[in-house]
Design a protein that fits this description.
This is NADPH:adrenodoxin oxidoreductase, mitochondrial. With 494 residues, this protein is an alpha/beta fold. The protein has 16 helices and 22 strands.
């Protein structure tokens, strides 16, 4: 059953705060209060937004946020571009949530390794899966595994200090980089590669020191940003495009042929698409054929799909099929184009993975099968094929939000809205006694586990800020998990 057929859009309902005092006077003269105990798996934006909403709308709830890394914040820490520090300010809100006395952070614990989904469901009244999407989509074409073919996700993880990627060492010795895909992540990579190291230093970013050193030696002068459809379907946003157009010592070189009749479509476009199209058309009209005094070139290329990576020991060029648009779909023609390149980064989206066999996971779509955030049972029974006609279709007390639920779409605000909606479902299910509070749940016992507490994270945070201050940066991220654990353990045992 296709995920798109079964997912419902659940309106965000601002429910009142819910109390959960259980009256057992029929058998006892005392009244027992059972506190809702909730586990959130994943300490990224989806996890924190979900926790934030539940704290506000579900009285007495106790929330454990479990994260596989010793450090919190997920995509905000490891995905947001280092020269976009304003986006990372949301961590201040997440910190307030984590420091609420009803919340416990347990870092360095992994679903599928340190505990199973069944164990979590036994120890909590409700479990929310919010661990995101961390696997790359692939092109499935020749030579995709050659050493100078990376994913944009890997490149971002490298310069953002995600543990495990510090030794990626992308080969920046050539003159050109090709980014396959035209989303904001691809534009982030293009901007970082084409920015001068001095600018990155002046702006006091938290880009890793090893990445700065490698970028200072980079010979990349041209970045191709290749998309299968046209300018009207470009996935990057106007903010990212403006930054590229204003980049110091960098020229944006459009292919004029890509913009035939685009200007004619502007009056009928919705406002956001209209504004970015107007900016592109204006830039095309103003571009100069000369490149004197320009160190670097950013070249968006439209209507091209890669069909072959050409090379023996490394990719030397990309072969493309030329597309035409048919009802906004890219349809291949008989034309081909070969463009030389020294490094390739595909940026064609992500997919989640299943961390437990008991998760109803859609391998094709790379996300959990759910309806509006409620996880669907793996085996459904009913005479009708329509999900709405099957009564007992949900896993009681099991939910999913963020990219693990929707696929990797939208920005942080999109994730916030999705997570608030799912959290509202959780609150309503407690209120309506769908989740029964007939006994207390113990939660995870961190004794004897390598769990990192919030105080442990604060010690890591302080050390990163100290190291960063020595270089005039907001922080220098630690990438060695062993070092992180040493710092955290020392703080936790004091």
């Amino acid at each position: 059953m296709a995920l798109g057929m079964i997912r419902k859009i659940i309106p965000l309902v601002r429910s009142g705060k819910v109390g959960h005092t259980i009256d057992r006077s029929a058998s006892s003269s005392s009244t027992v209060t059972v506190k809702p105990r909730i586990c959130i798996v994943g300490a990224g934006p989806a996890g924190f937004y979900t926790a934030q909403y539940i704290l506000k709308h579900l009285d007495n709830s106790q929330i454990d946020i479990v994260e596989k890394l010793p450090v919190p914040f997920g995509l905000v820490r490891f995905g947001v571009a280092p020269d976009h520090p304003e986006v990372k300010n949301v961590n201040n809100t997440f910190t307030k949530t984590a420091e609420n006395p009803r919340v416990r952070f347990l870092g360095n614990l992994s679903l599928g390794k340190d505990f199973s989904l069944a164990e979590l469901r036994e120890r909590y009244h409700a479990v929310l899966l919010t661990y995101g999407a961390e696997q790359d989509n692939t092109l499935g074409i020749t030579n995709e595994t050659l050493p100078n073919v990376l994913s944009a996700r890997e490149f971002v993880a490298w310069y953002n200090g995600l543990p495990g990627f510090e030794n990626l060492n992308p080969d920046l010795s050539g003159n050109s980089l090709t980014l396959l895909g035209q989303g904001n992540v691809a534009v982030d990579v293009a901007r970082i590669v084409l920015s001068s190291v001095d600018d990155l230093k002046v702006r006091k970013t938290d880009i890793t020191d090893y990445a700065l050193e490698a970028l200072s030696r980079s010979n990349i002068k041209t970045v191709h940003l290749v998309g299968r459809r046209g300018p009207l379907q470009a996935a990057f946003t106007i903010k990212e495009l403006r930054e590229m157009l204003k980049l110091t010592n960098c020229k944006t070189a459009w292919r004029v042929d890509d913009f035939h009749h685009v200007e004619d479509s502007i009056p009928d476009l919705p406002r956001p698409r209209k504004r970015i199209t107007e900016l592109m058309v204006k830039s095309v009209a103003e571009q100069s054929a000369t490149i004197s005094q320009i160190e670097r070139t950013f070249q968006p290329i439209f209507y091209r799909s890669p069909i072959n990576l050409i090379g023996q020991t490394k990719v030397e060029a990309v072969e493309y099929v030329v597309n035409k648009l048919v009802e906004d779909r890219a349809v291949a023609t008989d034309q081909r184009e070969i463009i030389p390149t020294d490094l390739v980064c595909r940026s064609i989206g992500y997919r989640a993975i299943s961390l437990d066999n008991h998760i109803n996971f859609n391998e094709k779509k790379g996300c959990v099968n759910n309806a509006g955030g409620r996880v669907l049972k793996q085996t459904l029974t009913g005479s009708d094929q329509t999900i709405d006609d099957i009564e007992d279709k949900y896993e009681t007390g099991l939910y999913v939000s963020g990219w693990l639920a929707t696929g990797p779409t939208g920005v942080i605000l999109t994730t916030m809205n999705n997570s608030f909606g799912v959290a509202d479902l959780v609150c309503r299910d407690f209120h309506n006694n769908v989740i029964k509070l007939n006994s207390s749940r113990p939660g995870i016992d961190p004794a004897g586990t390598p769990a990192v507490s919030w105080n442990g994270w604060k010690a890591i945070d302080a050390e990163e800020e100290r190291l960063g201050s020595l270089q005039g940066k907001p922080r220098e991220k630690l990438t060695c998990i062993k070092k992180m654990l040493e710092i955290a353990l020392n703080a936790q045992t004091k």
